[in-house]
User: Which sequence fits this backbone?
């Protein structure tokens, strides 16, 4: 099975711009989660989508948003970029569901640099 | 809110030796899941091992094993016969039960393996 893929892998933007990152989960996985990784804050949960619905949300401003499509692919969008948004954005997929937490499998990440 | 603490920012081990990475967590839940993830320089997060809190038996995966002490809220990772390829950042993560794939991560431990 193909792993989790993320596009693009690298991105350079300027302050005030917006950006959209894409994540394709492992085939059959219905849950997609997004994490932001920075040297200062470490790995922080952004949000999780399951069956096209946002099921959980971290403590990030409304500039961070996401969505999931019927094929489980997910996108996250950051509007009005700030310098502090520079980070590695990781996507993870799992089978999802409402029982025991499934193991999450991570993509290679998108490295975003805001100038 | 759940928190995960990794008190060792850096550790080093000689090749073929054994090393133990520490992790403590705080939660009021009785059912949960604990994970160790490895992040090599390529930045791809790789699952090392998973432990369900309701299981008393410590999880083992080849050279990797955990010491899960539920009452003490401790979850350490032991790497036996360390190999150069084990060099990476290791993250301890907490997952909750039921309908959420959110993970709470520790700050990580950087493991160096010396030849």
Assistant:
């Amino acid at each position: 099975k193909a792993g989790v893929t993320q596009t693009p892998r690298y991105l350079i933007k300027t302050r005030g711009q917006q950006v959209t990152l894409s994540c394709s989960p492992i085939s059959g996985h219905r849950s997609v989660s997004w994490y932001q990784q920075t040297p200062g804050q470490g790995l922080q949960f952004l949000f999780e989508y399951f069956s096209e619905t946002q099921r959980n949300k971290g403590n990030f401003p409304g500039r961070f948003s996401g969505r999931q499509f019927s094929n489980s692919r997910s996108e996250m969008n950051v509007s009005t970029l700030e310098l502090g948004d520079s980070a590695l954005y990781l996507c993870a997929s799992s089978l999802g569901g409402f029982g025991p937490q499934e193991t999450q499998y991570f993509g290679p990440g998108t490295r975003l640099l805001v100038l | 809110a759940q928190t995960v603490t990794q008190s060792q920012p850096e550790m080093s081990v000689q090749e073929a030796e054994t090393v133990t990475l520490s992790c403590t967590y705080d939660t009021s839940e009785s059912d949960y899941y604990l994970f160790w993830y490895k992040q090599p320089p390529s930045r791809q997060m790789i699952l090392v091992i998973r432990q369900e809190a309701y299981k008393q038996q410590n999880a083992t995966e080849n050279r990797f094993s955990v010491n899960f002490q539920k009452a003490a809220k401790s979850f350490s990772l032991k790497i036996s016969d360390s190999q150069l390829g084990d060099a990476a950042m290791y993250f301890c993560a907490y997952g909750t039960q039921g309908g959420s794939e959110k993970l709470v991560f520790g700050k990580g431990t950087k493991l160096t393996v010396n030849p």
